[in-house]
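Quick one from the shared queue. A colleague (R.T.) flagged Cupin domain-containing protein as missing a structural entry in our internal table.

Convert sequence to structure tokens.
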Amino acid sequence: MPLKIEEAPGAHEGASLPEASTPASLGQMLRARRKEIGKTMKDVAREAGLTEGFISQIERGISTPSLISLYNVANALGTSVDTFLSQPPQHSHSMVSHAGERPGYNVETKERVYELIERGFPGAALNGCITHMPPGYASELTSHEGEDFLYLIEGEMLYQIDGKDYLLKAGDTLHFPASLPHRARNVGAGPARELWVGTTRIIKED
């Protein structure tokens, strides 16, 4: 059964999402897929740009990957993020994205919400997402192809890019090659929201 990624309109207003399936469900599916294609956790970790320990934690339901890490793991397993979504996003290639009309998705934890922004036209090179991160959120160290551009809408975030720290406050931006190891942490007292624009196609084209 696909991982249930809950959807809720008005995610930008902080609307809570229904409970998602238990963390073990994602880990069980990833483990089953890994064994099906005959790969070790070390193989998946190397190809996904993650540590073997983190892959083990995901499979055991101890840790939850960020959306980009799930994308990397899915690639390493010869599949796509859509494989783990019970309700994959429907793309209409709208050139306009209205606040309040974008659905919110989460990966097993309702506190971290992703507003996936429609691609403006078929074959578009840029992809967008607004991520809502609760206080104390910290991502895993990851890397992937392409380039990332971040605009911090709200809050205070500490980004580590290739071992160097960058403190961003609302209105600040960050642009870097996504192949550099990077991670992020919400160091503010409240929630944070970031706009990500990148060349990595996390969700496949319809």
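Helices lie at 23-36, 41-48, 52-59, 67-76.
The CA atoms of residues 45 and 52 lie 5 Å apart.
Added to the table.
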